[in-house]
Amino acid sequence: MKVTAFIRKTSAKNNVTDLARVYFRVRDIGGVDIKAASELSINPNHWCPERQGYKPRVALVSEEKKNAFDRDIQQITHLITREYSRGVDGNWLKGLIEEYHHPNINARGGNKAEEYLLSYQIQKYVDETSLAFESRKHHLDNLNKVLRYERFRHEVMHQRGFHLCIDSITAEDIRDFKFWLQEEHKYVDMYPVFYRNEVRRNVEQVRSENSMSGSLYRIRTVIKWCIKRGLTRNNPFDQYQIAQPMYGDPFYLTLEERDKVYYADLSGMGASYPVYRDIFMFQCLIGCRVSDLNRLTQANIVDGCVEYIPQKTKLEHAGTVRVPLNQKALDILERYKDLEEALLPRFSHFGYNKKIKEILKYVGIDRMVRVLDPKTREDVARPLYEVATTHTARKTFIGNLYKQVKDPNLIASMSGHSEGSRAFARYRKIDDEMKKELVNLLD
């Protein structure tokens, strides 16, 4: 690789007023030949191509000015040589030279260059916007994905200097980022050195289309926020359509299946499993989100009801959810009445999901349900224990209530859904089952 400085303009022999812009050129094997202008200028009659700077004896220019000019040429040449990697283009060269002339300053409005990074704006959005706990968590998780993607482009693809910037990000960049999200689980084994410090469960699982759409929706939210603040006019989502989330029919435990788990003898599984069974059953009986469940304390029990403000929707409507406790729920709480603060033993979300699957399998909750394959988005049959999660408890509460009383507002008052939530639309299949039962009465 070779870096040279040159000018394109000539002047009459005695002309000492004309100025020519200094360009830098990078040539490498494989036909690489890129050029970009700098902000340095010199009279063509004073330029020495061999020295790539001032001629040795130029009487009309001070030594201080000549030395500063030659030093700039050398420093830019060294900077390009140090930062160059295969795959860079003219935009990279232009940006690198611009950064040399204006350290930390971006030409667009005098803002620091870092303020145009998508990662910077995601963090700023989280810091300056009132977000519910879960929403904030998802945006920070998205920030980690963006930073890891940029580092992947730097270190694995050797595209040094690559960043996603709010005023230059394109629909093609969004497509490439989405492809990386889709394929990252494969890269964990392909590039073990790159992933050696990552938590494996965060990077090795196949991401569903819904999960990737959620990441892109959050990026779009931040970019629209930047546009609203006048920081950019660029919106790559004008040319990119995010795939709509798809959901299968809601599956949940019937009351018979729930009771089978509630009364099962788990002594053969180990000491922790009855505890996790109690936590899961209690969630099935009050229908809260797992993030709210893990925050409940003795103070949330008021007059035989559990009261709490859902974290996810508290910024939309800070209404208190109040759910009466039936005898099964009260019996569970009685077993943990000696806990100092927490209503139930604390748990990790990941460990809780794992225990739910193991308990349901042990008890024999193996009814086949239809779920969406995370990659193909086709519905496939799976045993219920294999696809059950903490959210299954919430759906068990809602689904069984909805089957008895089809009043979304009444159920929402106990589940913490927003008024008019579209989530209840996914439970309408239950209506068909109820209609069939009614029609059969006419036989």
UniProtKB/TrEMBL annotation:
| GO MF, one annotated term | DNA binding
Per the record, a Pfam family? Phage_integrase
**Similarity annotation:** Belongs to the 'phage' integrase family.
| Database matches in SUPFAM superfamilies | DNA breaking-rejoining enzymes
Would you kindly state one Gene Ontology biological process term found in this protein's UniProt entry? DNA recombination
Q: Which InterPro entries match?
A: DNA_brk_join_enz, Integrase-like_cat_sf, Integrase_catalytic, Integrase_recombinase_N, Tyrosine_recombinase_XerCD
**Taxonomic lineage of the native organism:** Bacteria, Pseudomonadati, Bacteroidota, Bacteroidia, Bacteroidales
What is the protein name for this chain?
Site-specific tyrosine recombinase XerC
Classification via CDD domains: INTN1_C_like (cd01185)
All copies of domain Tyr recombinase, residue ranges: 248-440
- Keywords, ordered alphabetically: DNA recombination, DNA-binding
Which PANTHER family does the annotation name? INTEGRASE_RECOMBINASE PROTEIN MJ0367-RELATED (PTHR30349:SF41), PHAGE INTEGRASE-RELATED (PTHR30349)
